Amino acid sequence: MARANPIDKHDARRRALVDSALRTLGELGYAKSSLREIANNSPFSHGVVHYYFQNKVELIVYCVKQYKAVCVTRYDGVVADSTTAAGLVVAFANKLCETIVDEAPMHRLWYDLRAQSMFEEYLREAAHQIDRSLEEMTWRVVTRYADLAGAETALPPLTVYGMLDGVFQQALLGYLSGQEQEALAMLRKQVSELMPLTLRSTPTDAPGVA
């Protein structure tokens, strides 16, 4: 039997630590989390956590990168399965709402990390990489929407991402403030209103268009 590669075993153990760490990080946020606090809320000792991650910055960046890498692929089904422009908008809005309901603490951690990157230089590269992957995800959705609508895109990828990320963050804030249903309903409405604005010509089957 072939021996496992030590590097592979090391990476596998780091990934195993992520699930436990994410729960604590999502609840406490960047400022209040420490390696010891994360260890106290996981099956792993402080020594084990510290062995695989030198400090909380390395752990948090690794966790958020891993989470977002999975998160962006969840919209691939929206792109692949939608057969009309209107159907894509509905599916996209529903998926955005679903991820808020299921993973609000992790989204809160991401926005916390991104805000901290404006003050902490060592977080900026990671935040930029994650932002770029989210921008690419939204652009895949919008270009598929344009294809289904038989139209050309009217806005650059960064502008589209900025608009959609803005309404998503506001919905998350409302959801975390206890206005769950109102926040989700508003997010669906705003997505249906914003998506047609990303096209040069208005698709006849887009929501909100006569």
Separation of the first and last Cα atoms: 66 Å
* Share in β-strands: under 5%
| DSSP summary: helix tally | 9
Tell me about the largest β-sheet.
none
Sequence of secondary-structure elements: HHHHHHHHH
The number of distinct β-strands equals 0
Estimate percent helicity.
Answer: over 70%
CATH architectural group of the domain at 57-198: Orthogonal Bundle
Mean pLDDT: 85
Radius of gyration computed on alpha carbons = 19 Å
What overall form do the CA principal axes indicate?
elongated
Low-confidence stretches: none
CATH class of the domain at 57-198: Mainly Alpha
The helix/strand class is mainly alpha
Q: What is the CATH fold-level name of the domain at 57-198?
A: Tetracycline Repressor, domain 2
Organism: Streptomyces antioxidans
Pfam family, one: TetR_N
GO molecular function: DNA-binding transcription factor activity; transcription cis-regulatory region binding
InterPro entries: Homeodomain-like_sf, HTH-type_TetR-like_transc_reg, HTH_TetR
Q: What is shown here, in short?
A:
It comes from Streptomyces antioxidans. With 210 residues, the protein is mainly alpha-helical. It has helices at 6-32, 35-40, 46-52, 56-71, 76-81, 85-116, 121-149, 157-176, 180-194.
